[in-house]
Amino acid sequence: MIKEFAVEPLCFSSWDRARYLIEKFGYPQGRLIARFPENWTRVVKDSCGSPERPRERKKIINFIHMHRKKIMYGSGRAYEDAESWMENACREDQIQPFHAVITASESECTERILNIDDLTESNELFAVEHDISVERSIPGFISGLELFLKDAVELVFIDPYFNRLNNRHTRVLLELVRVAQSRQGGVPLARVAYHFNNAIPQEHFIQNLKQDRNIMRLNNIRLDFYMWPEEKLHNRYLLSNRGGIQFGTGLDINEGTSTSEDRLNLLSATSHESLLNQFNRSVEPFFTLTL
User: Fold this and answer.
1) What pLDDT is stored for residue 110 in this prediction?
2) Is there a cis peptide before residue 37, judged by omega within 30 degrees of 0?
3) Rounded Cα distance, 265 and 239, in Å
4) By CB count within 10 A, which of 171, 205, 217, 290 is most buried?
5) Residue 172 near residue 141 (C-beta atoms within 8 A)
6) Nearest CA to 19 among 123, 101, 119?
7) Cα–Cα distance between 225 and 194 in angstroms, integer?
8) What is the overall mean pLDDT for the chain?
9) Side-chain half-sphere of 90: how many Cα atoms within 13 Å?
10) H-helix or E-strand containing 72?
11) In what order do the strands lie in the sheet with 113-115?
12) What CATH number does the domain located at 3-118 have?
């Protein structure tokens, strides 16, 4: 659903290439560019365009600067400055595979090599599914959400029925937060928010929350809880500071009482921003728990 690509800095040698590449990346597109090396943006700026075409080069640099926060993913991969970018990419791909390695050079170090001139939406290595079916289990959710979780500084859960604090919901919360906290490098997860309906009194929810074994196993995290009138909530979402995903059924595991699979859909940039404004920026939590 969200895929990490290694992109050789030399791919940004012209305005047409740079524009095409950048417009194909971001959360709504399901693709992120690995920050590889960590100073990838600076390396690209040093490599892009041609000294003989300073206006084009400046245009590329400005375009990259404007979009870099939307398209980059920092996975904390090792990088040896004494080796070429391609040598580093091939070695890292053997350790922890990229979805594909996009290059302007010739190389056969991995079967996932994509030449910049061969990129099309129909190319099997470049194509990304924007909606997927996953098993409604902890492994199923993690398989579809792992990169999304590890890239989040904030996570916002929206599910009307979390108020019941049953094991089906709280186990999902526990395990997804643990995945988000397992990232290597980058900015750590700082906050989790949960929005649900007000079918039970707030004081009952707080009392039950403090007795929930899954919630109490979390650590180094701030949890904000929000209650909404029942008619205000229906759809289920998982949002981050970077992007968003809609769940067809719910943010809980199946225990034989409901459908065994869920359909996850990537949100557009407009929908993501609208939901963040509606749920996470316009109201205050009724209860905060710091663990």
Assistant:
1) 77
2) yes
3) 12
4) 205
5) yes
6) 119
7) 5
8) 92
9) 14
10) strand 72-73
11) 72-73, 31-34, 3-7, 100-103, 113-115
12) 3.40.50
Enumerate the β-bridge partners of residue 247. 236, 264
What amino acid occupies position 185?
G
Condensed to tens digits (0 to 9), the pLDDT of residues 118-145 reads: 889 889 999 999 999 999 999 999 999 9
| Type and span of the H or E element at 155 | strand 154-158
* Dihedral pair phi/psi, residue 75, rounded to 5°: -100, 5
The Cα angle at residue 251 between residues 260 and 221, in degrees rounded to 5 = 140
Residue 164 predicted with pLDDT over 90: no
- Three-state DSSP at 174 gives helix
> Which two three-digit tokens encode residue 142?
């993690």
Count of CB atoms situated within 10 Å of the CB of 188: 12
For the question of whether the overall pTM of this predicted structure is more than 0.70, the answer is yes
134 secondary structure, DSSP code: E
Instruction: Sort strands 236-240 and 131-135 into parallel, antiparallel or unpaired.
Output: unpaired
> What residue has token string 């809980």?
252
Torsion sign, CA atoms 141, 242, 95, 8: positive
**193 contacts 280 by C-beta, under 8 angstroms:** yes
Q: Is the dihedral of CA 217, 238, 272, 151 positive or negative?
A: positive
Asked whether 146 and 139 are in contact (CB, 8 A), the reply is no
Domain segments of the chain as ranges: 3-118, 131-290
Contact 249, 258 (CB under 8 A): yes
Q: What is the mean pLDDT of residues 100-129?
A: 89
Task: Classify residue 141 by burial, with Cβ atoms within 10 Å: 0-12, 13-18, 19+.
Answer: buried
CATH of domain 131-290: 3.30.870.30
Two tokens, residue 274: 């609208």
Whose tokens are 């594909």? That residue is 100
